[in-house]
Amino acid sequence: MTRAVIYARFSTELQSEKSTEDQIALCRAYAARIGLDVIGSYEDKARSGASIFGRDGLMRLMDAARDRAFEVVIVEALDRLSRDMEDLAGIHKRLSFLGVEIHAVHDGTADAILVGLRGLVGQLQREDGAKKVRRGMAGVIREGRHAGGRAYGYCPVPGRRGELEIVEEEAEIVRRIFAAYAAGRPPREIAGELNRDRIAPPRGTRWNASTINGNARRGNGLIFNELYAGRIVWNKVRMVKNPDTGKRISRPNPRDQWQEIAAPHLRIVDEGTWKCAQALKAEKARLSTNVKRRPAHLLSGLLRCGCCGSGMSVHDRDKTGKTRIRCSAVRENGSCSNRRILYLTDVEEAVLKGMTEELKDTRLIETYVRAYNEERKRLAATAISRRTRIERRRDRLEAERQRAIDMLIKGVLREEEGRARLDELRGQVLEAERELSQVGETPQIIALHPATLDSYIATVDRLAAVLTEHAAAEDDRGSLVSTFRALVHGVTVHPKAPREGFQVEVKGKLAALIGGAAFPQAKYSGGRVVAEERLEPPRGGRCV
C-alpha cells in the first residue's frame, strides 16, 4: 500500500487541544476509504498558518519527505498547511519535486490549480479576519474601554473585559516620575533613583531612561502615555510580519489614524504637570539637531567600560572646563559598579602614548599574517577534501545513470522501473552539483609585501606627528581624528582602586593598518598602558 502521513494544525491557544485529534481522525478515515497506509502524523498546535516559521511539525514533515519516507500527505484542508499563497505554493512545489502528493479530505488530490485557488481563499480569509478584529477593537475604544495591553499603573477589572482600574501603589510612582521630569531632572537620573529604591519596573528587572523617555513617533513610554492624562488612545502602531523571518514587527501609524476617547476616571497625572512634561519634551526634541552637530571628541563612540561593557559618555566639566566621563550604565540605570569619574584628556593621553609605542613593533603585523595564513591553509585543505569527495560521488552517480540508460535501451529494465531510477539518480546528481556550488573558491594565501609595512609605518608616523598638535588644540577636530579612527576599533577603560589610576585596552583595525582588505574582520589587541589620574579636586571638593 502507498505510504501516507497526516498533518494537522490549529491557530491559537483559544482553540481546543482536541482540534488536531479530530483532524487526524478525519484524515485516517479518508486514508482507509481510498486505500492508503498511514505510517505517522505531524501536528502544530497554536501555530498560525500565516507563516511557516516556528512550525516544527511541518519542518519535520518536510525533512521526512526529503528522506523518501512516504508518498502522500493527507490534510483536512489545504489551509492547514498554510494560509499564505506563497508558502502554500512553495510547499506544493517542493513536495511535488520529491514525488509526494497532497490529499485534502474535502478536495481530493491537490494540483496547481487547486493550490492556487485555496491559497488565495485562505489568505483572503486570514486578512479579512484581521480586519474584523481591528474593527472590533475600534468598537471597544468607542465604548470607553481599553483595547491595549498591560499599562503600568493599572490592572484589569475582573469579569469586565477592557475595563481598567488604577493601582494606587504604581500610580504614586507615575506621579513621582512626572513631577521629577517636570522639575527638569533627566530620565537617566530618575531611572537610577528608582533602581536604587528597588522599585519594580513595568517590564524586565531594571528601569531605563528609555522606559521613561519613550518614542514620540510611536507614542510609547511613560511620558507619552496619554492614559495618565485620562485619555485612551489606540492604533498608534500596526503589526506587520517580516516574510523572511516570520517575526511580527511594529510600525508607527500617522497621527491622524490614532483613535482617542476621554477616560477621566483613569487620570493619574494632573493636567498642569502633564502639559509641563509635554512642553519640556517638545523643547528637547527641537534641540536634538543642535546636539547632533556638536564636534565629536577624539574617542566619541569608542569608549567602553571595563566592568560592564557599556559605553562611556560625558559626565560634566570641572571648574576649569575639562571634560569628565563615566560609565553610561551608571547614569542610565545605576546597574554598573564602576562609579569612577575620569578626565577625558587623561584617557586620551594614555591611549595615544600606548598606541604609538605598541604599533611601532612591526612584528605584530607579521604575527597576524602568519596566523591568518595558517587558518587559510586549514580552510583550503578542508575545502579541497570536501570538493574531491563530492566530485567523486557526482561522477559515480553519473556513471550509474548512464548504465541505467543503457539497460533501459537494451530492454533489461522495464520502462517504468527505468524512468523511476533515472529520476532518482538525476535528483542525486543535481544535489551533488548544488553542494559543489556551495563549497566556494579555495582560500588564497597572502604575502607580507614590503609596501604594506611602509604604509603601516607611515600611518603610525602620521599619528605621532599630530600628538603635539592635539595637546595644544582647543577641540579634537583636525587630522588626528581621521588618522586615529583609521586605526582604532574600540577603547576599554578598566578602573583600578581609588587614587591608583586606570588601565586602557586598545583594539585596532588591522585591515586599516596594513592598507588593504586582506583582514576585513581582524582586530589587534594592544598592551594595557597604566596612566595615573590627576587628583585635582572637582566641583564639591570631592576627589574622583
Automatic annotation (TrEMBL):
It holds the Pfam family Recombinase. Residues 380-442 form a coiled coil. Keywords: Coiled coil, Plasmid. SUPFAM superfamilies: Resolvase-like. Residues 3-152 form the Resolvase/invertase-type recombinase catalytic domain. One of its GO terms (molecular function) is DNA binding. Residues 151-287 form the Recombinase domain. This is Recombinase family protein. It comes from Methylocystis parvus.
